[in-house]
Amino acid sequence: MSEARSRLLATASRLFYAEGLHSVGIDRIVAEASVTRATLYRHFPSKDDLVVAYLTGADAQIRAQVEAARAAGHSPADTVRAVAETITGGIRSDGFRGCAFLNAASEYPAVDHPVHQAVLKHRQWFLDTVTELMADAGETPPEPHARHFVMLRDGAMTAGCLSDPAPICETFLLGVEGILKYRDASPKDRARVKAGRR
Q: What are the residue ranges of helices labelled H in 20-138?
């Protein structure tokens, strides 16, 4: 990656995440990255290409966090917890403004748009990965619990930028513990939970 492309992408990523995709124009990115418009268009033929590159970078960062959690040698359940903690770490970070992918989907709702497709690709990878982790952490079918995890994550990422992140993170982690407890329960206990008995 050339120095100019790297600077452009870093500048665009910072502005896109902080202020939104449609609200940040090419002229501002060019000015803050200290490059010419010709340089920008040599590396990114359109703004859509730049937005997709921003999302690709965000995807790579999340994949690296998940892979680090998987490579740490934890038990299957603790690996799920470690992935959950990477999410709460992001929510607690300075400048947190929600999920980059959910934000992008709201600005580019057309399913066939390249930006929306980049969002769907990331989310499918994340769901598939969590499904694999849930399969290792219990004996019941993992798909419903993976979907539950992703829904909890989406809610936490949305709420985490609207109010105090501490109770949001606590609630999310408690929800993950509930999923893991259910997967570790005996068949009889799981049946009681499904029937609404305690």
A: 26-33, 37-43, 47-70, 76-92, 100-107, 114-136
Confidence at residue 127, expressed as pLDDT on a 0 to 100 scale: 98
Task: Name the superfamily (CATH) of residues 1-45.
Answer: Homeodomain-like (1.10.10.60)
The whole-model pTM stands at 0.90
**Tokens standing for 176?**
């993950």
> What distance in Å separates the CA atoms of residue 34 and residue 91, rounded to the nearest whole number?
31
Q: What is the CATH number of domain 47-195?
A: 1.10.357.10
Q: Fold identical between 1-45 and 47-195?
A: no
**Which residue, 38, 41, 37, 32, is CA-closest to 7?**
32
User: Given a cut of 90, is residue 182 above it in pLDDT?
Assistant: no
Q: 185 in the Ramachandran plot: left (φ > 0), alpha (ψ -120 to 50) or beta?
A: beta
The predicted pLDDT at position 178 comes to 95
Amino acid at 150: V
Domain boundaries, the chain: 1-45, 47-195
